[in-house]
């Protein structure tokens, strides 16, 4: 595969980027091959490299926020596949290859007795070409005209499918063509592997008898699941003139119950994978298939090839729409880490992240003297103050890869180490504290508020249960457990404009010398002495986020 493009999505705008060099750099510098001037993207963030055998890999170039492929962090050169999603900060690029891989060699059933109604298992590509070439003598003008006419038909069909914006429009075009060309077919169904998990879902169905149309989608038992699964899994096309005389299908419940006699099904190929199945059947045996069966099947297969491209385009659009909906719904309340994790797990059926035990560092940052400050302000002014303060402090949390848990009055509660594990969660938490105190010092110096503001910050580390908690009407992504309770209690012993940490956090730091022992303390509800450390972090002027 040598023809590679990237689909860049920015809001409602999609941009296609052609990768035209064997080493293709991506970053925030204008001299990069792909210039991405967005937050979270490093100056030289990543590069794509074409290998000798024609495959492509992606490599991270030491970026601050890392590079991910399908939500897996890239730690070394990683091979790319069609449909992969590359994440650079909050920017995503969909990988699109344009040279299709041929299907693998497929099995063909040899028919020993042509007098019996037969079942055909054939190669997809062979059948498509057979229908176009009309099976005639090369010197026969009528056959050449027939070939030209069929090619024109396919071009028209392709144009109509390209114009279809929804799966309903795609199926409507297919239904019209099938019932026009194949007089033996009574019913038609389009089944798609919507979630890419190998499970075929009926997305639309049609019949010549319009009065029965509404029942087809409501009750999918009329479809031969064994035929469809065989086509999907083994990548063959199947046409059976009489299912009840074929031992492969004669025992299937749907065939016996619904009286299906003839059926055919073809896979929907999209480059190197099958995305679904196009299925058709009839109540009467199609004995004319003894003579014309392969020609009708070859047309059905050629049509399916065109449908596959439209279906894959629809699947990609639906995936992007779903991700956008999830992102817009959650990004106001959750950190980018939580939003991205929800998207990476495919949007859980109930929209929740199940609670799980994690090793985290929890941070509480509280505004000093908030009660006295609020006594002098109107409710509107209080809200304005907290909004401005939270906006500034949250930048430090997200810059260090933290997750916002909640705002508790004038307090920010955040944690590090979930939803994705972070081995250096203690370092990230203390770096955030340094960033908050330094940022507030600079804001005070520049007249951020009518009077200087101060924070108290407390950090503790340990096990906690992290996940969505709440009712069916309202849930919040939060951390629970004794680790959180201790951090909340520790705030009371923290001097203004400083940070205190527990001994558990101190033991995890890569640079513990920044802290000094403050002594043992006893906290309400905790039946042991807790060693606490402190440092005057607000004197630091340069903060480097991990």
Structure explained in plain terms:
The protein has 546 residues and is an alpha+beta fold. The chain contains 13 helices and 25 strands. Helix 1 (124-133) crosses helix 7.
Give the tags:
34% helix, 546 residues, alpha+beta, eight-stranded mixed beta sheet, six-stranded antiparallel beta sheet, 28% strand, elongated
Task: Give a brief rundown of this model.
This protein is of the alpha+beta class.
Topology:
Elements: E1 4-10, E2 13-18, E3 23-27, E4 34-35, E5 46-50, E6 56-60, E7 67-69, E8 72-73, E9 78-79, E10 85-88, E11 91-97, E12 119-122, H1 124-133, H2 141-163, H3 167-181, E13 187-192, E14 201-207, H4 213-218, H5 225-234, E15 237-240, H6 253-258, E16 262-270, E17 273-282, H7 289-330, H8 336-344, E18 356-367, H9 370-375, H10 379-399, E19 403-408, E20 411-416, H11 425-445, E21 455-470, E22 475-480, H12 482-490, E23 498-502, H13 503-508, E24 516-522, E25 529-535
Parallel strand pairs: 3-4, 21-23
Antiparallel strand pairs: 1-2, 1-11, 3-5, 5-6, 6-9, 7-8, 7-10, 10-11, 12-15, 13-14, 13-17, 15-16, 16-17, 18-20, 18-21, 19-20, 21-22, 23-25, 24-25
């Amino acid at each position: 595969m040598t023809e590679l493009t990237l689909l860049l999505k920015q809001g409602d705008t999609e941009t296609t980027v052609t990768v035209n060099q064997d080493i293709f750099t991506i970053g925030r510098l204008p001299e990069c091959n792909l210039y991405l001037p967005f937050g979270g993207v490093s100056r030289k963030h990543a590069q794509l490299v074409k290998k000798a055998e024609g495959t492509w890999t992606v490599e991270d170039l030491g970026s601050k926020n890392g590079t991910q492929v399908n939500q897996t962090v890239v730690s070394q050169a990683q091979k790319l596949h069609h449909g992969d999603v590359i994440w650079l900060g909050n920017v995503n690029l969909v990988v699109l290859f344009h040279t299709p891989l041929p299907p693998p060699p497929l099995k063909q059933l040899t028919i020993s007795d042509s007098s019996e109604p037969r079942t055909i298992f054939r190669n997809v590509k062979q059948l498509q070409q057979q229908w176009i070439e009309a099976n005639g003598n090369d010197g026969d003008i009528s056959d050449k005209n027939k070939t030209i006419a069929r090619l024109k038909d396919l071009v028209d069909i392709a144009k109509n499918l390209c114009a279809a914006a929804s799966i309903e429009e795609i199926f409507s075009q297919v239904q019209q063509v099938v019932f026009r060309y194949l007089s033996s077919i009574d019913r038609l169904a389009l089944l798609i592997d919507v979630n890419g998990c190998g499970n075929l879902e009926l997305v639309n169905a049609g019949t010549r008898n319009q009065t029965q149309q509404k029942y087809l989608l409501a009750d999918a038992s009329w479809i031969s699941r064994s035929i469809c699964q065989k086509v999907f899994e083994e990548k063959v096309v199947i046409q059976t003139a009489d299912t009840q005389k074929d031992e492969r299908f004669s025992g299937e419940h749907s065939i016996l119950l619904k009286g299906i006699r003839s059926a055919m099904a073809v896979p929907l190929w999209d480059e190197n994978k099958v995305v679904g199945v196009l299925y058709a059947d009839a109540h009467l045996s199609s004995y004319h298939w003894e003579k014309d069966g392969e020609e009708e099947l070859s047309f059905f297969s050629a049509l399916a090839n065109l449908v596959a491209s439209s279906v894959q385009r629809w699947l990609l659009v639906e995936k992007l729409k779903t991700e956008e909906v999830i992102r817009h719904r959650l990004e106001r309340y959750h950190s980018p880490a939580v939003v991205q994790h929800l998207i990476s797990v495919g949007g859980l059926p109930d929209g929740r992240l199940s609670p799980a035990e994690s090793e985290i560092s929890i941070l509480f940052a509280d505004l000093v003297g908030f009660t006295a400050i609020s006594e002098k302000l109107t409710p509107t002014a209080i809200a304005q103050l907290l909004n401005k303060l939270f906006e500034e402090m949250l930048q430090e949390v997200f810059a260090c890869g933290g997750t916002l848990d909640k705002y508790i009055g004038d307090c920010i509660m955040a944690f590090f180490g979930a939803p994705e594990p972070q081995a250096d969660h203690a370092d990230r938490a203390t770096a955030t504290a340094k960033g908050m105190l330094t940022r507030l010092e600079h804001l005070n110096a520049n007249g951020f508020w009518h009077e200087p503001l101060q924070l108290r910050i407390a950090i503790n580390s340990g096990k906690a249960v992290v996940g969505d908690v709440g009712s069916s009407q309202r849930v919040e992504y939060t951390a629970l457990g004794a680790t959180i309770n201790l951090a909340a209690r520790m705030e009371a012993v923290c001097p203004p404009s400083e940070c205190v940490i527990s001994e558990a956090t101190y033991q995890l730091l890569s640079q513990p010398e920044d802290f000094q022992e403050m002594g043992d303390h006893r906290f309400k509800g905790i039946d042991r002495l807790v060693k606490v450390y402190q440092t005057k972090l607000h004197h630091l002027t340069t903060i480097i986020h991990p």
